[in-house]
Amino acid sequence: MNAQPAATQDYKEPALLEVRDFQVELITDAGIIRAVDSVNFSIHRGETVTIIGESGSGKSTTAMGILRLLPDDLAVLSGTVLIDGVDVVAEPKAIDKVRGRTLALIPQDPMTALSPVHSIGSQLSEAIRIAGAASKDKDAVRARAIRLLEQVHIPTPEVQLKKYPHQLSGGMLQRVLIAIALASEPQLLVADEPTSALDVTVQAGILDLLLELQEQRGIGILMITHDLGVARLISDRIHVMKDGSFVESGDVQQVVEHPATEYTRNLLAAVPVLGPWDETPAGNTQPDAAAAAALTNTGASHD
Amino acid sequence: MSISDTATPAASAAQPSRAPSPSAVTKALVAKAGATRRRNAAKWKLRIGAVCTLVVIIPILLAQVLPLPDANHQDLSARRLAPLMDGHLFGTDQLGRDLLSRVLHGGQVSLTIGILAVVVSGAIGIILGAAAGYFGGWVDTVVSRVLEAQMSLPLLMMLLLVVALFGPSIPVITFVIAIAQWPEVARLTRSMVLVEREKPYVSAARILGLHRIQILIQHIIPNVIKQATLVVLLLLAQAVLLESALSFLGAGPQRPFATWGRIISDGQDYITTSWWMVTLPGLVIVLMVVGVNLLGDGLRDRPRRKKKGA
Amino acid sequence: MTNYILKRLGQGLLTVFLTVSTVFILIRLAPGDPAVSYAGPLATTEQLARVREQFGLDRPVLEQYWIFLQQLFTGNLGTSYSFQAPAMQVVSERMPYTLTLATAAILLTAVVAIPLGVWMARRPDTNRELGVNVLTIAGQSMPDFWTGIMLLTGFAVLIPLFPASGFATWGGLVLPTVTIAILQIALISRMVRREMTANFAAPYLTVARSRGVGGPALTWRYAMGNSAIPVFTALGTRFAAMLNGVVVVEVVFAWPGVGSLIVRALETRDYPLIQATVLLTSLLAVAVQLVIDLAYPLLDPRVRLGKAAAA
């Protein structure tokens, strides 16, 4: 299982994430649903690859499937997912070694992503201890926790450590979650719609932070979004997903400027573009109608 | 796990191939899947529940038709006969009465009380709960306060008190059990109506100019009642248990027939010599209540809507 | 926080007051003459009149209620007809027995039901779990008086391991405790399963798993940490309810607690005793409820720190 990636570009080192013929089938009461249908892509160091699609297209399922976070009794995975050279589809146990170490997740809704009865500090320290990057010494863990919160630009980190999730805003919580993700010094970040639950102004800050961290550390990012503005801003490559498979893949510029399929054009027209980042919204003359068209294009809704 | 065996590495082209790839879902995986297990568990609960319930309820319903001795007919020459002797399937009690006949006729009374109590508590609970949820304001405050207060009352003690003071007649016991049970229905109905009230069809009906009470009765309650009836089975099980506890403590009806709790309490004195007088009526209660509870559980867990799928 | 406690205390005392008042009204509404049950069926009219005068039963109901309220606040509810002793004292002497039984039962319940519920939640709807699930349904479907008699026959008569009745030795505690616990274990373990299943599906658990948190920590620290509040509440409420008298089980095992006392008081229409029992048990139940309310902040930071977002 150590075949070289079939990528068109030249890369000196093997890919951080190599996904080949990846399939996710969900066994539900309504029958077997193929939520992800043989997708192929790879991510190298310092790259951001975006999967874009509307809700129900299977993009989040792809991310969760790669992390093996879908319940075993619901999802059947097949194909190959090489994380740092290890196939986590063939060896389900292998995922335990990469989660919280080389691989980290930034979840969709920060408001529900932290345990409400445990303090920020205790959940962050736990991540630090699992990663094993700092010594197990209490003060060292605390010092590292404070440093991580500083890195994600959280003011007065000492104070925040004692707080509980309900005391922080969504944007702050997402920063905490990014800090928790960073605790393990990951090489690959999976960001599952990291900004969709946040206000537009807060979104910009979070994306800014992700870009900054990527620049500093050369992390590979798998970005899941329905927002073309987000995709355009931070991606190297884009895969457009519909009904579980990629309908269009390619360089961000190429996909945005010369969309090859009707679906991508609808998506482009439907998604409003982030204000502060692009003053001239791209061709959203009839956003509502286009959104409706894009939404009715697919029947699948198994997210 | 045979996931990787079944995965066929397709030609890794730069563009995704559109040929449908084979499914990795095997029969074994489907059998182990959560959805399948849930469906099977619900199915088995329904089956076992139906069998247990019917085994008890059918003979009870047919008690008059079955060739049984009279439940109150005493025969001092046939006292405390063991089961299966002289045609007494469950044996006889200390006065020579046929135990099976007593259990079945007593069961008719128990079941009648249970069903009546559930109907009464269901009616009170749905009306008050719906009113509290729909109208809000002072109606809600009053109903919620009463619910809260009753939760903290020493319930069984109060029920015993009422029965002891007003006599163990069927209407009194039914009323007492209904009073014990209505809060559960009311709370459930209230919370469901609160959700239902915010739905678009309610504002649509309001825009059409329907009266508030008309909206509540014609539109909201029908939507809620289906879910509310699911708890009816569980309430029936509770009612039967509560009635048997009351009659065990001497607060059960005597006429026309002694109910299950009383039969067991009568047999208690003879437990060392005549085990069947307590054991068998108890097993009948357990069988029926288990059956009803399983039915309720199974109905709740059953997949909501069966779709035609692969 | 102090306001909250005071409010709960006020509500609790109001409930107690309403309860004893309801009992007062019920007693007066009921048909039958308590004087007859006190003096016996052979008493003469004169004797009955004397009894009525002695207990104030010949006065108008409102006046009786006024006297009752005065008694209530002085803590002296009169003399028990059947024990010929102050009613409050009779009940207080029985209270420790009920308290012992309820404590033992709730401890056994917690020790068994929580691990059992977690076990079920970790393998929902498998064959093994389905078997245990049906057993818990059976546990909540067995009438406790019947379970009690069965245990009594089995383990006190046929195999004489434990005493059949009363509380002469600690062994006497075993069978009544088990009888109560069977029902409570069934109810609580099913609740633990429900809560844990919901928490296993919660987003924060998936996120915790994504950062490499292992199985035991996911189960106990996260899922249990978040299920603890409702489970603790349920245990506390059940305990409070038991203090109102585990009537049936006390009767079956001739346990000298308030449960068997109230049955006797009802049989003999011993009104002062009924009132004293209702008053003391509901006061105790309110106290336990208050302790539960006080313990909430320890378990739930959202209660401790207020709901408002600080950032």
Key attributes of the depicted protein:
heterotrimer; A: alpha/beta; Rossmann fold; 6-stranded mixed β-sheet; 10 strands; disordered N terminus; C: mainly alpha; MetI-like fold; 76% helix
Structure description:
The complex is a heterotrimer of chains A (303), B (310) and C (311). Chain A is built from eleven helices and ten strands. Chain A is α/β, with parallel strands linked by helices and 303 residues long. Chain A has two domains: 11-102 and 188-277 and 288-303, Rossmann fold; 112-185, no CATH class. In chain A, α3 runs parallel beside α6 and α4 (138-151) packs across α6. The radius of gyration of chain A is 19 Å and the shape is globular. In chain A, 53% of the residues are buried. Chain B has a single domain (59-301), classed as MetI-like fold (Orthogonal Bundle), CATH 1.10.3720. Chain B contains eleven helices and no strands. The model of chain B is unreliable at 1-17 and 306-310 (pLDDT under 50). Chain C has a domain at 94-269: MetI-like (MetI-like fold). Chain C has 14 helices and no strands. In chain C, α7 (144-158) crosses α8. Chain C is globular, with a radius of gyration of 24 Å. The model of chain C is unreliable at 307-311 (pLDDT under 50). Chain A: It holds the Pfam family ABC_tran.
In short:
By secondary structure, chain A is of the alpha/beta class.
CATH class of the largest domain in chain A: Alpha Beta
Helicity range of chain C: over 70%
SS element count, helices of chain C: 14
The oligomeric state of the chains shown is heterotrimer
Runs of chain A with pLDDT <50, length 5+? 1-8, 278-303
Query: What is the 3D shape of chain A?
Result: globular
Please report the first level of CATH classification, the CATH class of the domain at 94-269 in chain C.
Mainly Alpha
Helix content of chain A: 25-40%
- Mind summarizing the main beta sheet of chain A? 6 strands, mixed
CATH architecture of the largest domain in chain A: 3-Layer(aba) Sandwich
Distance between the termini of chain C: 21 Å
| Count of separate DSSP helical elements of chain A | 11
Could you state the CATH homologous superfamily of the largest domain in chain A? P-loop containing nucleotide triphosphate hydrolases
| Computed CA radius of gyration of chain A, to the nearest angstrom | 19 Å
Give the radius of gyration of chain C.
24 Å
Order of helices and strands of chain A: EEEHEEHEHHHHEHEHEEHHH
* Integer count of domains of chain A: 2
